[in-house]
Structure formats: C-alpha cells, structure tokens
Design brief:
The complex is a heterodimer of chains A (269) and B (315). Chain A has helices spanning 5-33, 48-56, 59-91, 96-108, 111-124, 131-155, 159-167, 172-183, 185-201, 204-209, 218-228, 233-253, 255-268. By secondary structure, chain A is mainly alpha-helical. In chain A, helix 6 runs antiparallel to helix 9 and helix 9 (185-201) crosses helix 13. The longest helix of chain A is centred in the N-terminal third of the chain and has 33 residues, at 59-91. Chain A is globular, with a radius of gyration of 23 Å. Chain B has a two-stranded antiparallel sheet with strand order 1-2. In chain B, helix 3 packs parallel to helix 7 (182-206), helix 4 packs antiparallel against helix 7 (182-206) and helix 10 runs antiparallel to helix 13. The longest helix of chain B is centred in the N-terminal third of the chain and has 34 residues, at 29-62. Classes of the chains: A mainly alpha (269), B mainly alpha (315). At the A-B interface, helix 1, helix 3, helix 4, helix 5 and helix 6 of A face helix 1, helix 3, helix 4, helix 5 and helix 7 of B.
Chain lengths: 269, 315
C-alpha cells in the first residue's frame, strides 16, 4: 500500500509529537538537574550537582543495596525457575498441571496481599531489615513468572532432541545444562532483563521490609531524599537522574529484549 | 525398596530397556522420574510456599481480626469487610481506583488504537527509534517519573509556565494540591506511562494482520472507518485484551505514584486501595482493616484476569 506525501508528512508529525510528549518529562528532570543550586544564577551545566546529590542522598549505599538485591533475586529466581520449569515442562510428572496453576496464581497476586503478613512474621523472626526480608519475597514473585516462562519455553523444545540425548545416555542434569541452557538463551536473557527491571524499580516490598531504612534501595532512597529536600529541586532532580540512569542505559543496550519480552510475555500470559 | 506391581509401571513401550535381561535397577524409569521431579521441585516450592502461598493464607486470616500489629489480635469476623464498605475514606479509595482505570487503561487504549493504526499503515523510516522512545517510561522507576511530574505540576512548573505563555494564566493552579484537579493530575501521569506500552503492543498486533485484507476491502469500496472497524479491531482483539489486563491492574495497584506525589491528599482526594493498605497497617495501626483491603484488591485483580481471559478464549 503506497501512502501519499501528505499522509506521510502527517504520519511524521504525529510520530514526532508523540515521541516528544514521551520524552519531555524525562528531559525536564535532566535539565533541572543541570541548573545552578543558587537562585538568580543563570549558568547551566552544573555536573557537580550529581556528585552533591550522590553524597547528600547516601546513594552509594542505596545503589549498592539495589545491586546486591537485584543480583540475588535475578540469579535465585533464574536457577529455581529452570528447575521448576524443567520438571513442569519436560518431565511432566502426575499432578504437574495443578502445580503449574499454583505457580500461575503467584503472577496475579499483588505485593499488597503478601507484604503485611510477611512483615509481621519476619519481624517476629528477627529478619526484617535484613537483605533476605527484601530479596526472598521478590524472588518468590519472580519465580512465579519464571516458572511460567521457562515451562513455556521447555515445552516448545523438539522432543526428538531430548530423546536422542537420553538414548546417548545423558541424564537430566546433563540435558538441562548441555542442551536446554544453550538453546534457551533468548528466553533466559528475557527473564533476566524483566526480573532485573521489576526488582530494581520495586517500591512497596523494600519500603515495608526495612523499617529502619538499612536495606533501602535506590528508588526508596530517592523518595526519602524528596522528603528531606522539599526546596532544593535541583539536587532532587539530580538524584532522580542517578536512580533512573542504570535502568535507562541497560534499556538502551538491550531494548530488543525489553520490548519483545514485555510484549511476548504479556501476550503469552 | 520393593517395586510396586502396577499396570504400566514395568516395561513401557517407549522404554529402551524393554525386555532388558540385566538385573533390575533399584528404581524403574517412572519412579526415577518422580524422584528427580521431587528433588528439583523441593527448593522452588519451599521459597514459593514460604514467601507467597503462606503469606497469602495469612493475610486472609488477619483480615478477620482486629489487630494493631503488636498485642494479641481479636477475632471480629467479617467486621473489617463491613467497615470497608461503610467507611467513606476506604470506599473513596476504591472509587478513585475506578477513575484511575479510565486514565490508565481506557484513554491509552483509545489513543493507542488511533496512533497504532496511523503508524503501521505506511512504511516509514525511524519506527524503531520511535518505539524505543515511547516505551522508555516503562523502564524508569515510578518514583523518578513521579518526581518529574511533581515539578511539571508545581506552581512555578512547566505546565503553569506553559499556560501563562499562551495567555491562559487564569487557569494556573497547584495541580496536585487542588481538590478538584489532584486525582486527574495523578491519572494523567498514568495515561502518559501507559500510552507508549499500549501503542507498541497494538502496533505489533496490527503488523500481523495480512495486508491483503486491507487491499481486498479497499477494492470492495470500504472506507477508512469500515476497514478500521471490521479488520483492524477484530485483528488486534488479543492485544486489546492484553493491554487492558496490564493497564487496569497497574491502575488498581497504584502505590508509589500516590506515595510520592500526593500521599493521598489533599484531604483524601487521591487515596487508592494499595495506599490505604499501607496507611491503615503502618500509620493507623489497623492491620485487620489493611488485610481486608488487600484481600478485596487481590480478588478484584483475579476477577479481572479471569474475565479478560474468558473473553479472550471466546472463539
């Protein structure tokens, strides 16, 4: 179908306008972050704001927490979902389908539902304000998605390949590590990307599970930074840029996985 | 271990060792599989059970108690649920969530359908860049977006400056602090985040519709509207349902956005169910009420998922 010139121009106008409205709020924060802190000063490009915000907002500690928690959640959830996905997708024991629906349930459960009892029970066990109180509930949530995701991938693997490997004497562990892992790289990368994003951006679980603020993650640190500096919007904007930056860089590097993961994962779900 | 004598457990046809004269192994094939399944599932089920299923059961139990989180709880039956439906503040939170659904789901779907139709009709350069840009808000933490929008809505922010610039200074106000505009202002942030996701989803759906359908329809004299209504809409039904599921649930689960922009205010004009779960439990010390809210919220989300899935399987 060939489009006329006016139609093309109109399409581009809409395209540019829509892209601009998506970008403006993000660029606005970036511009604010580069403003001078003192009122009346008209200079621009104050990169030192980032250093000041980093210092005053204790972001080195919060970023470290975020990285440790995200790595822990992503790797734990991946290993566990490979195990459950292998059983439910390849071995398919009796009762496997029921278990699958039990895991599927977890995708729908909102954090709001589990966070209250978890907080009180973990507090009684003396585990709040530890890394586990934040990471394990998030692992369980990612595991629900991961089981669903890995099972779907494993079910799609050609059974002839697995049969051939079995005849050659490969055991389950061997099949999983030497055949399915290399075959499943795209599915694994997508799961890593999505669960990393969810964990990094999560708010409610780290907020509730660390009442002392010891295990605060970067987004939480930013929310509390806002509470302290209601006036200094420059430093707040600089802090916001710092918190968004790792995810934005990762997105720009891996945007194919992000977009296909979100759209395919959503459509399969 | 003695091998149980059950039909089908001995030598199954697919077994490569059928009729194998070697001495019997300790476990036959099916038993071996069952053992491996149990071993591999033990750890995932432990984590999932302790940190998902068990708390899910516990929240249901807590919802029948009056408890401040410290002493001993008191069994109050369905009292907390009754309270939710008679308390203006809590009922208001659910009403606000319904309004947010319009902003998070309905408007983005309408806008997304028009944009996606427009953008996939013609072969254009730069679509990849466009997709990357409009999807960007999805990956940035809501706290960051909320802070950006707080500045835009501030008295000296971008929106008011813009209004003054085009001579509409009379309209300027503290958007997030005004009773009449706060909820709309919060909702529009949701619209802004959702629209990119919905558009990208619909674009991938439309590009899967065979081009001949449109060509045939055009030859038959169908205009723009009829092609849109009879080809595009049925062709992206799955994507529409997925968009609705994701955005409606996002609207119902709004927490960080409200926490950062308005804390439910001014007054109670922007409280939402998940904010009230947090507020009731950790600020007002009514864990029971908070739990009943969490249970209702979960049931609503389940119901929406189920309904949309049933609609999706209709044909």
């Amino acid at each position: 179908m060939r489009a006329s010139t006016t139609e093309k121009v109109l399409n581009y106008v809409v395209l540019v306008a829509f892209a601009a409205q998506a970008l403006v709020p993000i660029l606005y924060v970036l511009v604010l972050a580069l403003q001078p802190e003192r009122i009346g000063d008209n200079s621009f490009w104050h990169l030192e704001n980032f250093a000041t915000a980093w210092e005053q907002g204790h972001f080195s500690q919060y970023m470290t927490n975020s990285v440790i928690i995200a790595v822990l959640v992503v790797s734990l959830a991946l290993v566990l979902s490979l195990m459950s996905g292998y059983v439910l997708g390849i071995l398919r024991p009796r009762g496997g389908d029921i278990l699958f629906y039990v895991f599927l349930l977890g995708i729908m459960v909102p954090s709001e539902a589990i966070v209250l009892p978890l907080f009180f029970d973990l507090r009684d066990a003396g585990l709040t304000d530890t890394i586990w109180a934040v990471a394990l509930p998030q692992t369980a949530q990612s595991l629900a998605f991961g089981t669903f995701w890995m099972r779907a991938f494993f079910r799609g693997v050609n059974p002839a390949i697995l049969e051939a490997a079995r005849i050659d004497g490969a055991g389950d562990l061997r099949i999983l590590t030497s055949i399915l892992l290399p075959l499943g790289r795209p599915a694994i990368v997508t799961q890593v990307v999505l669960t990393f994003m969810w964990t990094w951006n999560d708010f409610l679980i780290p907020l509730v599970m660390s009442p002392s603020g010891k295990m605060r993650t970067a987004p939480l640190g930013l929310a509390f930074f806002q509470g302290q500096y209601t006036q200094g919007s420059t430093l707040l904007a600089a802090g916001a840029v710092l918190v968004a930056l790792p995810m934005v860089v990762l997105y720009l590097l891996l945007q194919k996985q992000f977009i296909s993961g979100m759209t395919e994962g959503a459509v399969k779900g | 271990m003695t091998a149980p004598i059950m039909p089908g457990t001995a030598a199954t046809p697919q077994s490569p060792h059928a009729g194998d004269p070697r001495p019997r192994r300790l476990l036959n094939k099916r038993q071996g599989r069952a053992v491996i399944s149990v071993v591999l599932l033990a750890l995932p089920l432990l984590v999932y059970g302790l940190f998902m299923l068990y708390p899910l059961g516990r929240v249901l139990m807590l919802s029948f108690y009056r408890w401040d989180g410290l002493g001993v709880g008191e069994w109050v039956g369905v009292n907390n649920y009754v309270k939710t439906f008679s308390d203006d503040r809590l009922l208001g939170a659910f009403l606000h969530a319904l309004i947010l659904i319009i902003f998070y789901a309905v408007i983005p779907l309408a806008v997304g359908l028009v944009l996606a139709t427009l953008l996939t009709r013609a072969q254009m350069r730069g679509l990849g860049f466009f997709r990357t840009v409009v999807f960007l808000p999805q990956v940035i933490a809501m706290v960051v977006l909320a802070i950006a929008w707080r500045r835009i809505y501030a008295p000296d922010g971008l929106l008011n400056s813009l209004l003054r610039g085009i001579g509409l200074g009379a309209l300027t106000r503290t958007w997030l602090g005004d009773f009449s505009t706060a909820l709309i202002a919060v909702g529009l942030i949701g619209t802004w985040v959702s629209t990119g996701l919905v558009t990208v989803l619909l674009m991938s759906g439309i590009s899967n519709i065979p081009k001949d359908y449109y060509e045939a329809a055009t030859l038959d004299g169908a205009g723009w509207w009829r092609r849109f209504w009879h080809i595009t809409i049925p062709g992206v039904r799955a994507e529409i349902l997925v968009s609705l599921t994701l955005t409606v649930i996002a609207a119902l689960k709004t927490f960080d956005l409200v926490y950062v922009t308005t804390s439910g205010g001014p007054g109670t004009s922007t409280t939402v169910p998940s904010y009230e779960v947090y507020n009731q439990a950790f600020r007002l010390g009514s864990v029971g009420t908070a739990s009943s809210l969490a249970v209702i919220l979960t049931l609503v989300i389940f119901a929406i998922n189920l309904t949309i899935n049933l609609l999706g399987e209709r044909d």
